């Protein structure tokens, strides 16, 4: 696969490592165990568009939020995770 | 037995990343590979709210690029981070010099974190392009002069910096210098045998 | 000899080769198959299941029969298709799947037993009794399975890999591919043209067509010369594009040195090609028509027969006088007959089931007839022709069979697109849902005539790149008329899949046994599951199955294709990553010192570390380790600890950031101090530990374990970028930049005083858990950390990596009177077990801070990764604690990984009370000791328990102690 890096253009997926659901960006505040349980263990597993985290390990070390269709591998968006978090604020 | 009270001990002899006291150099056809232990390196990351500094008059380059002025080179290493390199200054406290040029920025000594290998071609760019296609998976645009890419090479994370059509530098982690040298020279040797 | 004039072989030069030890001659331009044919060799192999005599069946990579072992010794490669092997001088090939020899094969008795070896034979037979499996069935199946045998020696050849990028990848260099490459090349696009053959041209080389009134081969040569002048076009000959992957990535194998007696450099290159667009112009593969005994040597595909005559100037006859017949259900067979006649090959007859078939030349035509049988023990001697119920026997030595052409759609369906049946083409065409960026042209898209193939190639490239199509030569555009005949009904065995030995009867049996889906048919009969993946069999089988079910071929459906298109050597897929390049090797800065001092090295991940430094007279590894340990406890030792990860953390919020990374507090650490830190995963389990030093107000250095250096760094970047991007913090690894040496033992201060440049090393100036910047040996920048892994007074000193080796040598030199001793990872491990420090075996991802006795370190006054989940009831209620374990019998051995039980308890899971994590002989205590996790461990000091290792049947009785076997109060390290 090719990951369309927002700063560097398409780069081979071999340069990246994969973490999973981008919901990991939304770490709960406070000490609610149930919220952390959901954050840590519960994931959607959609057949279709999925926002997920990729790390450009053999590259610029940026974490990306990649929107990928898990059924076709089509990638419709890739953003810097830092920008995604910034926009959420 | 050494005399522990000896006041003037001899200086420590530094080793190059490839293990020798003098840098390695070898040629295959048009290609020459040279280990560069003399290049000093420091990372520079402006802190929050800082204006982008211009150390030693260098304009810090855009993502995927490098820029040189005299003996100084700056290359983009990641969002908000650059590597500053200076020929011939490895034995100085280069990080301190960079810090003085960018007060308040985060600066880290990287000189001995890397092995720096220059590869030059005596037959313009083509042999370098043929060499690179056996080493890194990057589109030709990312390997044009003025471009610097951080990528994988034989399972190693490296910088590939194309300073000119006929020359480039490969930086890899110092501890794996032998593996990197082996990968580069083996590819260059095969290219010489079968251009 | 059955050479005829003409063809594209260089008859001015002769190449010598052997087959089964017999010497033959061929010419440059020959394949092994054409050269064997030229020498009248007709029997080349034995079939997989029945060991039937088999000959050359095709002229390309679809070959099911002519599989040989090429070369010998360590270079022997089994199952090589003779039709694809480019002849070189000295080539040596041997036949396969026969014993003792090709002419007489003992296992040919399988053929007589064939009624018992029908479809599903394996599934039905090797079911019971169960004990027979290991002893009888498996060895039996293994012996009979496979064709050639792999050599046992390591492959002496080299392989490599490479990466190419282009606007357009053209797969196949025939009419369509050349037209596409010319179009794209002239438009200035970057083009890669890959073809599996050693000569561009594809089918154009094998036909008698004229292009612009000249031979097709001449046009091919001109096109090739034209492409060679374009710097933007790269031609990869001998290169098979074997797989189409996501986002325009293709895998290709270039056979760099296979056509040479020995490769000059690498044998094969694995190319990973990233293409914006691709054109699949892979041509088509001919079908055959199954009839009784249709597998005899001498029976081959009609198009292949024509190819051998036209391209290689050779026929499969044994003698010039041998007669040739053609069995065809379409016009293409007549084209073969006409070409043969034109080249002076005696065509006896063309048998065509179509009643309205017409002749293309001067030969006898049997229209409305079929071939219903054949004879010939080791090769064809006669065929039986049946027309209107009347049979005749015709003596002939060669039969070309032509059942129509299947487009080579394989790569087009690698993304699971299903090929679509076309009634007009009587064939499967590429799927509508092609891989993104791909288009199909030429015969692969059903455009089989030279005119249609050329135009389709040019127009497809023009459409993809939005440019104008190249000018093309005039060429024939005859329609292909066909009445599909999927098989000739009758008694006897009619082969469908030659390589897997699947017959029409097998398909019928599978159908009777209710294998209705094509996927079931495939697996029950093994159809299409041999190394050729059924290239000449699959569609024919579908046609047979459709007939049996009364459905159309479209309704019957088809299986899809997966990579690789043709077999790929595993070594090539490895891309040369073996030996030195299997993975990078990392050397410590003091590697030279270690080697010079006779260190035994050990792999620690990618690192090579000194495991121990044996001395003369030490006969057992423990002699060495015990000596090194005691030297540290009594004097001073030196150990390279550079491999521990180092991460530079800077920024206004560096302290706040580290407070969230570590479960314990770091913001409160004073400048010049060091603190032990424990990192948790978000689920509350411990995952890494190390020290954290505060060099300046906004500058920390974090150390990690060797194994987790990369992981901790990526997780810290995750925290920085994904969780708390508002914090002002910058990270960079400095693991390699600093050589770090542990100087440990009661005399460590005395030794270091000899290298520091006037630095006050007193306990007051450099207390336990402090750090400082200084210079050593006359001006070398250094960092000093007073930390201890051994439990002794100890320091770690760091210098720029280039000085590491010299500093180590200097310390070893200056400390001789102090008994300085370099020690390796084994002694390091014993020292830390004696001290009760946790390491990877204790922090294995299944343990918590509480279990390692650090439960109170998890701060409740701040948020940190894993803090909330570490307070889960299930984790908090876990009573297992890290304890020390001491063998009662000093001669005993404590196995690491053994499970702990109360004395007298049953050795079952229900009574399991924990496990041994680390064990060693303690030279200090003169007894075996261990660390382990034990239920209610904190309350069981002094209790006697048992460590059981049921795998090896041994047990040892232990006393539970504090994990701190030495100096539990810590006086030594504070001294």
UniProtKB/TrEMBL annotation, chain A:
Pfam families associated with the record: SoxD
Highest taxon, organism lineage: Bacteria
GO biological process assignments: tetrahydrofolate metabolic process
Gene Ontology MF term list: sarcosine oxidase activity
Name assigned to this protein: Heterotetrameric sarcosine oxidase delta subunit
Automatic annotation (TrEMBL), chain B:
Domain of life the protein comes from: Bacteria
InterPro entries found in the cross-reference section: TrmE/GcvT-like
Protein name as annotated: Heterotetrameric sarcosine oxidase gamma subunit
UniProtKB/TrEMBL annotation, chain C:
Protein name: Heterotetrameric sarcosine oxidase alpha subunit
Segments forming domain SoxA A3: 492-576
Gene3D superfamilies with a match to the protein in the record: 2Fe-2S iron-sulphur cluster binding domain, sarcosine oxidase, alpha subunit, N-terminal domain, FAD/NAD(P)-binding domain, Probable tRNA modification gtpase trme, domain 1
Species for this entry: Salipiger aestuarii
GO terms, molecular function: sarcosine oxidase activity
Family under the similarity heading: Belongs to the GcvT family.
Keywords: Oxidoreductase
SUPFAM superfamilies: Aminomethyltransferase beta-barrel domain (SSF101790), FAD/NAD(P)-binding domain (SSF51905), Folate-binding domain (SSF103025)
Domain Aminomethyltransferase C-terminal: 880-967
Swiss-Prot/TrEMBL GO biological process terms: tetrahydrofolate metabolic process
Domain (GCVT N-terminal) ranges: 591-862
InterPro entries on file: 2Fe-2S-bd_N, FAD/NAD-bd_sf, GcvT/YgfZ/DmdA, GcvT/YgfZ_C, GcvT_C, GCVT_N, Sarcosine_oxidase_asu, SoxA_A3
């Amino acid at each position: 696969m090719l990951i369309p890096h927002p700063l560097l253009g398409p780069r081979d997926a071999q340069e990246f490592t994969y973490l999973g659901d981008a919901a990991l960006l939304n770490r709960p505040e406070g000490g609610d165990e149930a919220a952390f349980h959901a954050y840590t263990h519960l994931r959607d597993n959609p057949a279709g568009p999925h926002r997920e985290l990729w790390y450009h390990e053999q590259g610029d070390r940026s974490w990306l939020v990649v929107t990928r269709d898990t059924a076709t591998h089509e990638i419709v968006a890739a953003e810097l995770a830092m920008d995604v978090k910034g926009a959420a604020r | 037995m050494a005399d522990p009270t000896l006041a003037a001990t001899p200086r420590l002899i530094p080793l190059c990343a490839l293990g020798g006291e003098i840098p390695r150099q070898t040629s295959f056809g048009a290609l020459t590979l040279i280990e560069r232990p003399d290049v000093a390196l420091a990372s520079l990351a402006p802190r929050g709210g800082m204006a982008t500094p211009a150390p030693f008059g260098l304009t810090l380059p855009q993502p995927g690029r490098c820029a040189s002025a005299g003996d100084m080179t700056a290359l983009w290493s990641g969002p908000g981070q650059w590597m500053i390199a200076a020929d011939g200054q490895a034995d100085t406290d280069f990080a301190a010099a960079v810090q003085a040029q960018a007060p308040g920025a985060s600066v880290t000594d990287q000189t001995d974190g890397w092995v720096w290998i220059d590869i030059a071609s005596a037959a313009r760019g083509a042999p370098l392009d043929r060499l690179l296609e056996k080493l890194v998976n990057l589109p030709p645009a990312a390997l044009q002069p003025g471009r610097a890419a951080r990528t994988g090479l034989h399972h190693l994370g490296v910088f590939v910096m194309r300073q000119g059509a006929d020359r480039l530098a490969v930086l890899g982690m110092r501890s794996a210098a032998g593996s990197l040298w082996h990968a580069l020279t083996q590819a260059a040797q095969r290219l010489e045998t079968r251009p | 000899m059955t050479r005829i004039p003409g063809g594209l072989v260089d008859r001015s030069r002769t190449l010598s080769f052997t087959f089964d030890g017999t010497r033959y001659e061929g010419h440059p331009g020959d394949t092994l198959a054409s050269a064997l044919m030229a020498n009248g060799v007709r029997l080349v192999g034995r079939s997989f299941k029945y060991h039937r005599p088999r000959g050359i069946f095709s002229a390309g990579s679809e070959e099911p029969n002519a599989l040989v072992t090429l070369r010998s010794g360590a270079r022997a490669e089994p199952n090589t298709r003779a039709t694809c092997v480019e002849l070189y001088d000295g080539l040596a090939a041997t036949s396969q799947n026969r014993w003792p020899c090709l002419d007489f094969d003992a296992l040919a008795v399988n053929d007589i037993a064939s009624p018992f070896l029908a479809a599903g034979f394996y599934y039905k037979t090797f079911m019971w009794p169960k004990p027979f499996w290991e002893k009888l069935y498996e060895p039996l199946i293994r012996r009979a399975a496979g064709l050639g045998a792999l050599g046992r020696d390591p492959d002496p050849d080299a392989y490599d890999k490479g990466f190419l990028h282009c606007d357009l990848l053209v797969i196949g260099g025939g009419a369509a591919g050349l037209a596409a490459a010319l179009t794209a090349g002239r438009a200035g696009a970057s083009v890669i043209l890959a073809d599996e053959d050693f000569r561009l041209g594809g089918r154009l080389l094998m036909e008698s067509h004229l292009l612009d009134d000249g031979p097709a081969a001449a046009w091919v040569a001109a096109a090739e010369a034209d492409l060679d002048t374009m710097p933007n076009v790269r031609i990869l000959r001998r290169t098979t594009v074997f797989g189409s992957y996501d986002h325009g990535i293709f895998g290709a194998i270039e056979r760099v040195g296979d056509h040479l007696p020995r490769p000059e450099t690498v044998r094969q290159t694995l190319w990973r090609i990233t293409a914006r667009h691709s054109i699949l112009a892979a041509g088509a593969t001919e079908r055959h028509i199954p009839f009784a005994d249709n597998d005899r040597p001498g029976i081959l595909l009609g198009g292949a027969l024509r190819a051998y005559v036209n391209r290689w100037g050779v026929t499969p006859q044994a003698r010039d006088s041998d007669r040739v017949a053609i069995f065809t259900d379409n016009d293409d067979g007549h084209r073969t007959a006409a070409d043969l006649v034109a080249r002076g090959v005696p065509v006896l007859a063309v048998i065509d089931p179509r009643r309205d078939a017409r002749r293309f030349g001067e030969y006898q035509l049997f229209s409305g007839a079929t071939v219903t049988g054949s004879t010939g023990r080791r090769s064809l001697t006669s065929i039986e022709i049946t027309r209107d119920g009347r049979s005749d026997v015709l003596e002939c030595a060669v039969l070309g069979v032509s059942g129509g052409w299947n487009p080579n759609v394989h790569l087009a369906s690698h993304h699971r697109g299903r090929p679509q049946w076309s009634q007009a083409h009587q064939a499967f065409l590429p799927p509508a849902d092609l891989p993104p960026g791909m288009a199909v042209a030429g015969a692969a898209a059903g455009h089989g005539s030279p005119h249609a193939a050329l135009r389709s190639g040019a127009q497809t490239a023009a459409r993809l790149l939005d440019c104008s199509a190249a000018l093309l030569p005039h060429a024939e555009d005859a329609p292909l008329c066909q009445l599909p005949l999927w098989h000739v009904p009758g008694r006897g065995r009619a082969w469908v899949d030659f390589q897997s030995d699947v017959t029409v009867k097998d398909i019928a049996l599978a159908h009777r046994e209710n294998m209705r889906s094509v996927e079931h048919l495939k697996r029950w009969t093994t159809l299409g599951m041999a190394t050729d993946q059924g290239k000449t069999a699959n569609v024919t089988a579908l046609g047979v199955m459709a007939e049996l079910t009364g459905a159309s071929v479209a309704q019957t459906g088809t299986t899809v294709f997966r990579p690789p298109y043709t077999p790929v050597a595993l070594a090539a897929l490895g891309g040369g990553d073996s030996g030195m390049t299997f993975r990078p090797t990392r050397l410590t800065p003091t590697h030279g010192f270690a080697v010079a001092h006779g260190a035994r090295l050990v792999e620690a991940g990618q690192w090579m570390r000194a495991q121990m430094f044996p001395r003369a007279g030490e006969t057992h590894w423990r002699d060495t380790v015990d000596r090194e340990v005691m030297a540290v406890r009594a004097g001073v030792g030196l150990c390279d600890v550079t491999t521990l990860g180092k991460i530079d953390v800077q920024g206004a919020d560096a302290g706040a950031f580290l407070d969230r990374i570590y479960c314990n507090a770091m913001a409160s650490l004073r400048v010049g101090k060091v603190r032990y830190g424990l990192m948790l995963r978000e689920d509350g389990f411990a995952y890494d530990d190390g020290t954290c030093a505060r060099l300046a107000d906004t500058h920390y250095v974090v150390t990690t374990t060797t194994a987790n250096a990369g992981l901790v760094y990526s997780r810290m970047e995750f925290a920085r970028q994904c969780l708390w991007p508002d914090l002002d913090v910058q990270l960079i690894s400095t693991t390699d930049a600093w050589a770090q040496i542990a100087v440990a033992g009661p005399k460590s201060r005395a030794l270091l005083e000899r290298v520091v440049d006037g630095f006050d090393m007193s306990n007051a100036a450099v207390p336990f858990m402090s750090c400082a910047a200084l210079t050593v040996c006359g001006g070398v920048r250094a960092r000093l950390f007073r930390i201890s892994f051994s439990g002794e007074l100890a320091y770690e000193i760091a210098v720029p990596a280039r000085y590491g080796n010299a500093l180590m040598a200097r310390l070893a030199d200056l400390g001789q009177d102090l008994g300085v001793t370099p020690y390796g990872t084994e002694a390091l491990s014993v020292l830390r077990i004696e001290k009760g420090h946790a390491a990877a075996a204790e922090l294995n991802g299944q343990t918590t801070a509480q279990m390692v006795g650090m439960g109170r370190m998890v701060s409740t006054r701040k948020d940190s990764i894993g803090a909330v989940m570490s307070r889960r009831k299930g984790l908090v209620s876990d009573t297992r604690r890290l304890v020390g374990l001491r063998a009662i019998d000093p001669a005993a051995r404590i196995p690491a990984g053994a499970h702990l039980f109360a004395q007298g308890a049953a050795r079952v899971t229900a009574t399991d009370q924990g496990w041994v994590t680390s064990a060693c002989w303690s030279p200090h205590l003169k007894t075996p000791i261990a660390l382990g996790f034990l239920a209610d461990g904190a309350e069981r000091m002094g209790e006697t328990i048992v460590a059981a290792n049921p795998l090896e049947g041994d047990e040892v009785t232990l006393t539970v102690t504090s994990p701190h076997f030495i100096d539990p109060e810590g006086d030594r390290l504070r001294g």
